[in-house]
Specification:
single chain; Rossmann fold; Dimethylsulfoxide Reductase, domain 2; 3 domains; 7-stranded mixed beta sheet; 28 helices; 29 strands; globular
Length: 761
């Protein structure tokens, strides 16, 4: 068990100022972010939120806050927050004809429709939908499996292009649930701890951590390590702040990441820069990998990627030094080549001896991801006679797993693209009931959102829980429940998906809920109580009981919610070289949690799943190379998904201060490209692919290549007509992205590499 630390000398959780203001220390879980756990001081006077400041005693964020938290008062008291349960007639979907109802009526309606669906059509007709961010996604599978008794948990992101492909590559080749850059997260003294070493180099690949603070990695820790001497290699088609400070910026052609990663491997192996001792003792399939990368000499890779050959060589030589570390992001997932990119990059850091060493790539303990297929639903709880056992759902696979069987080896959700096919065709059966929370698909996640919109409207009954009215709710919902912010509820946050676990933080309520808002967790427990009044399910008595049950399931975590609530922050010292100590395998033997017990450069798991066991490159399907017939009409490449400080995907669009900072959906265009098309700064332009077009405000900037335009994602206009779905289809860039153009095993898609043209609107 890792050593647990609390800061016993920290300020009290609640202090009172001379004017009667109470200051509450807590950790954030939003507003709009990936549960990073930044430290907050919430100022409350006379029961009202006054302001939010950073908590300088938080060992990770150290008093820093993003603009989203700093404007939290606007968010909390916004005039458009959902405050009461509402319903409308099914025939009024898309119309602003909501009627306020009581919680009892809203919940009874949901339960009645659920029971009616199951009785008439079976449990397969039931689905539960969830997005990403906030802590709602922590309970997606419990809401689906344990409350509504269905395996049809839906995360409608084409190719599951959000962390799952990266985690699949990590598990299937390295045997680790999560691998991240080592930023000394678990040491109370952080960078001063003698057990930690500052990386010589960090490779930042397809990620903008200063804006996104992704998956538990506090972005500013990169700046802190740069101050200690760490240097950067950045791979990104755009020039972000980190790229301007990098030793080498690999500004590649969008979608060619796989070739570039293989080119780096080629240099390391051909120039004999790898760690022979580590390769010999701890890896499997090095000779086969060495033979594969001969197919990707630097000159060929340079031609494919448009990256200078000397830059590729320089980057590889830097990365080969120890310790060096890797931070790879969402862009790896949003590519049909996703598993191969992850496999190649992880192999690069493995053969250079940079795995699980101080300042290298920290390997999380396997496997704890809540969506793993091994966490299939069960009918074990006493008092749930109408649960899974009655409907024979044990062992049933979620939709699409027959078509993409590899999904069952990593995640217990429906395959996103197959879900749309089922909604449109009713094969193998019709989905008739949907409960959705933390979810705004037609504004953000799904390619071809108009198809998803029309398909979701075919569902007989749809209920949502959220903080604001969204285009998806307005378009398809029958009942909507008002969700609480993290200021109003209990919860917890964990860095790096709790796989280190590093830092654990408490979400401590500082305010009474506005209106009749309730936490997603409270809603889940109440639905469960009403469906199964005689249930004695352990850990489901109340929110704190549930939180404790979740914490107890995390490997090597022994803190309770009461412990976290008392101290706000807990830190677990991280352990290095776990593979030498038998800490990565269930049998306690040295090695890695893979079939061979070694890091699998040649993946026996991928081989069993029917894919190439070695990394390889796939040219983007719609590029000028693959489709020269499209290139004449669509000569540019559109990439999307770059983060902004002011928003998290489709959230925060109604916050006035944030809209002052970033007012409109924007397309970034190189000035030379803009001049060619007669576009000036601020012009409204259309960006069009063979699949659709969207309207964007032009921003002229040299940070994008002349052949590339970069479009904001997740846009809608909350100030616009709700019955026109807040103009979402005018601005949603995902209309340019194809449906079900995934990689060989069903992962990844073309969010980053579609052909397009631009012209003035």
């Amino acid at each position: 068990m890792p050593t647990l630390h609390y800061n016993e000398s920290a300020s009290p959780v609640v202090t009172t100022l001379s004017d009667g203001t109470t200051v509450h220390r807590t950790c954030s879980a939003g507003i709009g972010c990936h549960n990073l756990g930044c430290g907050l001081k919430v100022h409350v006077k006379d029961g009202k939120l006054v302001k939010v400041e950073g908590d300088e005693e938080n060992p990770i964020s150290k008093g820093r806050l993003c603009v989203r938290c700093l404007t939290a008062k606007e968010y909390f008291y916004h005039k458009d927050r959902l405050l009461y349960p509402m319903k409308r007639a099914r025939e009024d979907r898309g119309k602003d004809k909501w009627e306020r109802v009581s919680w009892d009526e809203a919940l009874d309606t949901i339960i009645s429709k659920y029971k009616e669906t199951v009785e008439n059509y079976g449990i397969g007709a039931v689905s539960v939908w969830c997005g990403t961010g906030r802590e709602a996604s922590q309970i997606h599978f419990q809401m689906a499996n344990d409350v509504f008794g269905t395996v049809n948990a839906v995360h409608p992101n084409s190719g599951w292009s959000c962390i799952v492909p990266r985690m699949a590559a990590m598990l299937w080749t390295m045997g680790s649930s999560y691998i991240e850059a080592d930023n000394s997260i678990g040491f109370p003294d952080r960078y001063d701890d003698p057990r930690w070493a500052c990386p010589k180099y960090m490779l930042v690949w397809g990620r903008d951590p200063l804006r996104s603070n992704p998956d538990g990695l506090f972005g500013h820790s990169i700046v802190e390590m740069m101050k200690l001497g760490m240097k950067l290699i950045v791979c990104d088609p755009r020039v972000n702040w980190l790229a301007t400070r990098a030793e080498v910026h690999l500004q590649l052609r969008p979608g060619t990441d796989g070739a570039l990663a293989l080119g780096l491997l080629n240099v390391v192996i051909e120039e004999d820069l790898y760690d022979h001792d580590f390769v010999e003792k701890w890896t499997y399939g090095f000779d086969e990998l060495a033979e594969r990368v001969k197919e990707y000499p630097v000159e060929r890779v340079s031609e494919i990627t448009e990256v200078d050959a000397d830059d590729i060589r320089s980057a590889a030589r830097c990365i080969a030094q120890r310790p060096s570390t890797l931070s790879m992001g969402l862009a790896v997932d949003q590519n049909p080549n996703t598993l191969q990119i992850g496999h190649a990059l992880l192999s690069l850091f493995a053969i250079t001896g940079n795995m699980d060493i101080p300042g290298g790539c920290f390997m999380g303990l396997p496997p704890i991801f809540a969506g793993m297929a091994e966490n299939a639903p069960t009918a074990e709880a006493e008092g749930e006679p109408e649960g899974l056992a009655k409907f024979g759902n044990i062992g049933v696979e979620p939709l699409g797993h027959d078509r993409y069987p590899a999904m069952s080896a990593i995640v217990n959700t429906t395959h996103p693209d197959a879900t749309l096919d089922v909604l449109e065709t009713n094969v193998p059966y019709k989905i008739r009931f949907a409960y959705a929370f933390g979810h705004n698909s037609i504004s953000c996640m799904v390619p071809q959102p108009k198809r998803w919109y029309e398909a979701m409207r075919k569902i007989d009954f749809v209920a949502f829980a959220d903080l604001f009215m969204t285009p998806t709710i307005m378009g398809v919902a029958d009942v909507v429940l008002p969700a609480a912010t993290f200021f109003e509820k209990k919860g917890y946050v964990s860095n790096n998906n709790a796989s280190q676990p590093g830092q654990m933080g408490a979400i401590i309520p500082a305010l009474e809920p506005v209106g009749e808002c309730r936490a997603d967790l409270e809603i889940m427990l109440e639905l469960h109580r009403r469906l199964y009044p005689n249930s004695k399910k352990p850990g489901w008595a109340d929110p704190e009981d549930f939180i404790n049950s979740q914490l107890s399931k995390m490997r090597d975590v022994d803190a309770t919610y009461a412990d976290l609530e008392q101290h706000v922050i807990a830190q677990y010292e991280i352990e290095y070289r776990k593979y030498e100590k038998g800490l990565l395998r269930s049998d306690g033997q040295p090695g890695f949690n893979t079939p061979t017990g070694r890091i699998e450069l040649y993946s026996t798991v991928l081989e069993r799943l029917g894919d190439d066991p070695l990394p390889y490159y796939i040219e983007p399907k719609f590029s000028a190379v693959s489709r020269p017939d499209l290139a004449e009409e669509y000569p540019l490449t559109v990439t999307t998904g770059a983060r902004r400080f002011t928003s998290f995907h489709s959230e925060n669009r109604q916050i006035e201060t944030l809209r002052e900072i970033h007012q409109w959906p924007t397309v970034q265009i190189n000035p030379q490209t803009a001049d060619e098309y007669g576009i000036c700064e601020g012009s409204w332009v259309y960006v069009e692919s063979p699949l659709g077009k969207v309207k964007m405000s032009a921003h002229l900037t040299p940070i994008v290549k002349e052949s590339v335009v970069s479009c904001d994602h997740g846009w809608w206009l909350p100030e616009s007509d709700p019955e026109n779905l807040f103009d979402v289809f005018d601005y949603n860039v995902n209309q340019l992205i194809p449906h079900e153009e995934n990689g060989p095993l069903g992962f990844g898609t073309h969010y980053k590499s579609m052909p397009c043209k631009i012209y003035r609107a």
